[in-house]
C-alpha cells in the first residue's frame, strides 16, 4: 500500500521560551559588561588610568572614555546591521556577544597608568570602543529575535525581554562590585566613601574577568536559535538587500530620524539615573562641588532598590503598549519625564526619603519608556533593513543622549554650585524633543512585519510612470 502523500516539512521554529531566554540573556550580559565599566569609571578608573591633581578633571576624563563607546555604537550598528540583514540574526548575535565578552575580559587584565603610562590609557580606550562597537549590534538583534518570533498581539510584551537585560545587568554588575567591596573593606579610620587599597589594586578586576562565564552561557543559548520565519521568507523570496544601509537611508530616512529622537529622552534619563547619580550620590557634602555624601555601599543599595522598579515597569509597559499603542503610551510617559526633570531637585532636597523617591520615580519612568522601544523601533522598518534601521536609530541616539549626558550633567552640576536643578532642566529639554518626535510619528501597534516587507518590495519593484514597463 503506497504511503500517504505528505506536504513539505515545516521549517524549524524557535520555542517561545528559547526566544525569551536568548533575547534576555544576551542583553543582560551586554548591559552587565557596560555597567561594570560605568561603575569602575566612577570608582577607580580616574585614579588608575587618568592621573590628575584635580579630581573633577580625572572624573571627566573617565566619563569622556565612557562616552567614546557611544560614538562606536553607530559604527557597530552599521556593520552588524549589514551582517544581520544579509546573513541572518543568529550568526550576527553570536559575533556581537563574543566581541563584547573579549573586550570586557581584556579590561580586567589591563596594566594601569602607573605600570604602563599612557599606553594603559590607550588600551582602555581601545577596549571601550570595542565594547561600544559590539553593543551597537547587540540590541537591535536581540529585539528582532523577540519581536519577529512574537505571537500576534504580543510584540511589545516580547520586546520588553531584551529591555529587561538593562536592569538585570545593573543589579548583577553592581551587586558583584558590592560583594567585592564587602570582601575587601577599607582599613579602620579610612574614608568610607572611598574603595579600599585592595579593591583599587585588584578587586575591581574580578567583575570584568567574571564576564567570561556569563558570555559562555550566552553563546550556548544563542547557538540553539534558528532564524525567524519572517527573515527566512525574506531570504527565500529574494528580498535581502545587497546594501541595507543604502536602502534604509534612501527609502526610510524619516523613520531613522524619528526613531533617533524617540529614543533621546530614554537615553538621557538612563545615563543620568545610573552614571551621573552614582557620582552625585557619593560626592562629599563639603567638596568643591558638593554632592549627597553617601558612602558607596549605601548609595548603590539605594540605586538597586530603584532598579527593581525599573525591571518591574519594563515588563509592565509591554501589555500597556500592546493594548493602547506604542505611541500613545510613550507620549504620556515622555510628558511625565518632562515633569520629573523639573521637580527632581526639590525631591532630592527632602533628604534621604526624597533621594529614594527620586531614584524610584526615575527608574520607574525609565522602565516605562525603555520597554516599548523593543517593539517600536523594529516596527518602523521592513524586514530587509530592520536590523540596520532599528540599530542605527537606537545607537545614533546614544551619541546625542548617552555619550554626552554624564559629561553635560557634571558641567551643569558644577554650574549649579552643587545643586542638580540644571541637570533636571536638561533632562526635560531632551524629553521635549522626544515628545515632538512622537507627535510627528505614527502608531505601529497594528503593523504586520510581513506586510511591511511586502509593501516595501512592491514599492521598490513597481515600474515608474513613463518607464518601458509601465
UniProtKB/TrEMBL annotation:
GO cellular component: plasma membrane
Major facilitator superfamily (MFS) profile domain location: 19-445
Gene3D superfamilies assigned: MFS general substrate transporter like domains
Keyword Disulfide bond: no
Entry keyword set: Cell membrane, Membrane, Transmembrane, Transmembrane helix, Transport
Domain of life: Bacteria
Localization in the cell: Cell membrane
Any one Pfam family match given in the protein's UniProt record, by short name: MFS_1
Bias (Basic and acidic residues) ranges: 449-462
Coiled-coil residue spans: none
Region (Disordered): 449-470
Primary site of residence: membrane
Cross-referenced InterPro entries: MFS, MFS_dom, MFS_trans_sf, Sugar_transporter_CS
GO molecular function, one term: transmembrane transporter activity
CDD domains xrefs: MFS_ShiA_like (cd17369)
Topological relation to the membrane, as annotated: Multi-pass membrane protein
Record-annotated membrane-spanning stretches: 58-80, 92-110, 116-135, 164-184, 204-221, 256-276, 296-317, 329-349, 355-380, 392-413, 419-440
Protein known as: Metabolite-proton symporter
Organism: Streptomyces luteogriseus
Amino acid at each position: 500500500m503506497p504511503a500517504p502523500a505528505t506536504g513539505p516539512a515545516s521549517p524549524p521554529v524557535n520555542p517561545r521560551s528559547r526566544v525569551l531566554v536568548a533575547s534576555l540573556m544576551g542583553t543582560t550580559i551586554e548591559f552587565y559588561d557596560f555597567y561594570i565599566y560605568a561603575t569602575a569609571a566612577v570608582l577607580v578608573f580616574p585614579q588608575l588610568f587618568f592621573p590628575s591633581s584635580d579630581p573633577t578633571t580625572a572624573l571627566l576624563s573617565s566619563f569622556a572614555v565612557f562616552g567614546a563607546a557611544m560614538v562606536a555604537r553607530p559604527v557597530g550598528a552599521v556593520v552588524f546591521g549589514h551582517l544581520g540583514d544579509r546573513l541572518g540574526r543568529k550568526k550576527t548575535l553570536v559575533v556581537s556577544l563574543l566581541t563584547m565578552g573579549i573586550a570586557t575580559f581584556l579590561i580586567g587584565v589591563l596594566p594601569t597608568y602607573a605600570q604602563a603610562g599612557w599606553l594603559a590609557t590607550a588600551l582602555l580606550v581601545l577596549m571601550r570602543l570595542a565594547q561600544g562597537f559590539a553593543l551597537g549590534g547587540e540590541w537591535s538583534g536581540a529585539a528582532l529575535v523577540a519581536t519577529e518570533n512574537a505571537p500576534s498581539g504580543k510584540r511589545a510584551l516580547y520586546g520588553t525581554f531584551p529591555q529587561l537585560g538593562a536592569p538585570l545587568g545593573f543589579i548583577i554588575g553592581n551587586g558583584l562590585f558590592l560583594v567585592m567591596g564587602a570582601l575587601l573593606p577599607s582599613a579602620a579610620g579610612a574614608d568610607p566613601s572611598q574603595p579600599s587599597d585592595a579593591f583599587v589594586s585588584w578587586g575591581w578586576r574580578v567583575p570584568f574577568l567574571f564576564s567570561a562565564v556569563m558570555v559562555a552561557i550566552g553563546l550556548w543559548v544563542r547557538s540553539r536559535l534558528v532564524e525567524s520565519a519572517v527573515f527566512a521568507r525574506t531570504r527565500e523570496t529574494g528580498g535581502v538587500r545587497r546594501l541595507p544601509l543604502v536602502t534604509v537611508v534612501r527609502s526610510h530616512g524619516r523613520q531613522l530620524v524619528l526613531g533617533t529622537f524617540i529614543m533621546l529622552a530614554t537615553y538621557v534619563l538612563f545615563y543620568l539615573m545610573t552614571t551621573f547619580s552614582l557620582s552625585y550620590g557619593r560626592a562629599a557634602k563639603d567638596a568643591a562641588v558638593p554632592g549627597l555624601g553617601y558612602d558607596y555601599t549605601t548609595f548603590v543599595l539605594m540605586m538597586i532598590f530603584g532598579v527593581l522598579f525599573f525591571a518591574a515597569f519594563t515588563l509592565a509597559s509591554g501589555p500597556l503598549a500592546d493594548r493602547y499603542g506604542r505611541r500613545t503610551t510613550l507620549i504620556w510617559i515622555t510628558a511625565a519625564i518632562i515633569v520629573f526633570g523639573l521637580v527632581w531637585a526639590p525631591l532630592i532636597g527632602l533628604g534621604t526619603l526624597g533621594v529614594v523617591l527620586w531614584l524610584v520615580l526615575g527608574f520607574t519612568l525609565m522602565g516605562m519608556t525603555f520597554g516599548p522601544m523593543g517593539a517600536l523601533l523594529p516596527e518602523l522598518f521592513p524586514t530587509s533593513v530592520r536590523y540596520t534601521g532599528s540599530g542605527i536609530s537606537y545607537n545614533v541616539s546614544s551619541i546625542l543622549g548617552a555619550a554626552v549626558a554624564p559629561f553635560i550633567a557634571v558641567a551643569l552640576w558644577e554650574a549649579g554650585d552643587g545643586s542638580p536643578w540644571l541637570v533636571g532642566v536638561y533632562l526635560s529639554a531632551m524629553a521635549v524633543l522626544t515628545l515632538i518626535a512622537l507627535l510627528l510619528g505614527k502608531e505601529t501597534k497594528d503593523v504586520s512585519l510581513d506586510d511591511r516587507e511586502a509593501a516595501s518590495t512592491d514599492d521598490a519593484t513597481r515600474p515608474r510612470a513613463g518607464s518601458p514597463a509601465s
